[in-house]
Amino acid sequence: MFLQALTKARSAGVGLVLLSGDSEDKPDFIAQCRDAFQGEYVNLGIELSRYLLDCDAVVSLSMEASNFVRSVKDGADVFLDGIEILFDSGMEVHPISILKNAARHRIVCANWPGRFNADTNELCFGDENDPVFRSFAVDSETIVLDETGRSTCEEP
């Protein structure tokens, strides 16, 4: 199913593929997708943290984070893991916007740290009663695939 989602993304000009889920099967699902992906692997949490620590003076965390994600691996197709850093309140960023921007001219596949609600067509981060809870509407510029095989794309 993952390779079908990538094929659909490439043929439809969609650059962002998000892998969601909250079951015990998700780690195996992510490992299989990462192994099948023909691109660079980046742990965004580690790499962005290193980058920010090396910055002399950070004027805007949101600007630095956005620039870093957009330029990571010089435009090569990339598999991002550890994107939870984008949800840190100190970052003051919109995670989906940053990922879409990075996926304008390449495929960006990311391990979404939450679940996809197919009924509302939303990606969720955190529990609904948690203060960090956020939900994001999924549009046609994003393909979502979860560990159960549910997807926002049609069969190619």
Helix content: 25-40%
Number of separate strands: 8
Strand order of the largest sheet: 2-3-4-1-8
Treating each run of at least 4 consecutive H or I residues as one helix, how many helices? 5
| Structural domains: how many | 1
Mean pLDDT: 89
Shape: globular
Low-confidence stretches: none
Strand % is 15-25%
- Euclidean distance between termini CA atoms: 10 Å
| Main beta sheet strand tally, sense and closure | 5 strands, parallel
The SSE string, one letter per element, is HEHEHHEHEEEEE
Structural class: alpha/beta
Radius of gyration: 15 Å
Helix and strand layout, with pairings?
Layout: H1 2-12, E1 16-20, H2 26-36, E2 40-43, H3 44-54, H4 61-71, E3 78-81, H5 95-102, E4 108-111, E5 115-117, E6 122-125, E7 134-137, E8 142-146
Parallel strand pairs: 1-4, 1-8, 2-3, 3-4
Antiparallel strand pairs: 5-6, 6-7
Helix pairs in contact: 3-4, 4-5
What does this structure look like?
- With about 160 residues, the protein is α/β, with parallel strands linked by helices.
- It has one domain (about 1-145).
- Helices cover about 35% and strands about 20% of the residues.
- The chain has helices at about 1-10, 25-35, 45-55, 60-70, 95-100; strands spanning about 15-20, 40-45, 80, 110, 115, 120-125, 135, 140-145.
- The strands form two sheets. It has a five-stranded parallel sheet.
- Strand 3, helix 5 and strand 4 form a beta-alpha-beta unit.
- Helix 3 packs across helix 4 (about 60-70).
- It starts with a helix and ends in a 10-residue tail after the last strand.
